[in-house]
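User: Okay, second chain of the day. Same drill as before: sequence in, structure tokens out.
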Amino acid sequence: MKKRRLGSQGLEVSAIGLGCMGMSQSYGAADQAEAVKVLHQAVELGCTFFDTAEVYGPYKNEELIGRALRERRKDVVIATKFGFALEGPHPMASNSHPKHIKKVVDESLKRLQVEHIDLLYQHRIDPAVPIEEVVGTMGELIDQGKVLYLGLSEAGPETIRRAHAERKLSALQSEYSLWERGLEEKIIPLLKELGIGLVPFSPVGRGFLTGQIKSFEDIGEGDYRKRDPRYQGANFDKNLKLVKVIEHIAKRHGATAAQIAIAWVLHQGEQFVPIPGTKRLKYISENCDALKINLSEEDLAELDELGQKTSGARYEPEMLARVER
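Assistant: Same drill. Structure tokens below.
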């Protein structure tokens, strides 16, 4: 697989990565044996950039990555995240205090069975801790050899600029896709100015843009999307019309709707490295093959219009409040 460079600090990754969250939470039950096969197949295909976090599971996803990839360590780039208090009286409260960051990183290293984390993100901005203090602590971990590169997730423009001034960032991870374009006005221009890469998660709209979900009833119990505003009622029906456009373009290319959605992200710039998630073996090759699709100017113009037509809020209010803009 082709490589892409995230930021100006030297971090090189596969042009498409693998979001691993769904192997441990959020989208219903996952078969752990199949998840291991997916991880191994990804490496064979050259998709060697893996995204996890302590909160996924919690802890279980990092443990899965550690078990599955310990024999392939030299072949892979592993990104993980900190930023929540997962134990105590207020689970899921923000916590990016320096002492906590150092504790979490040491625990993540053990679960991942690695000597260093390739890319460490702050998962969500903690309003109680100045970003300079957070990134300064992350920088200390680089100096100690525990981390190689730094990133933020879902940070706003001012925070990104302040953080980058303290210690150079390699990547911002945020949701970006054909139906979520909120980064385009301020954040993407800033990333280009500062030389920071973008790692878009949910490039296929949490599965909606694949065209595989035809009705709300197709979503199983225990699946987060049962609460996703864009999957509800009239929003679902309106958004299904967007998928029809993607499917029409997919037919022109002999591709799937998911491949077109991923290809669109790839076409936005060489500093974009999408991380579509899957826990199914049958989808990992399909996702990687999106690299082979060359969208025409006509395709891109038609697809660009979809971002103005998405119906429904991106998240529930509580989750949306954690996204800094």
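The domain at 3-207+265-294 is CATH 3.20.20.100 (TIM Barrel).

User: Thanks, on to the next one.
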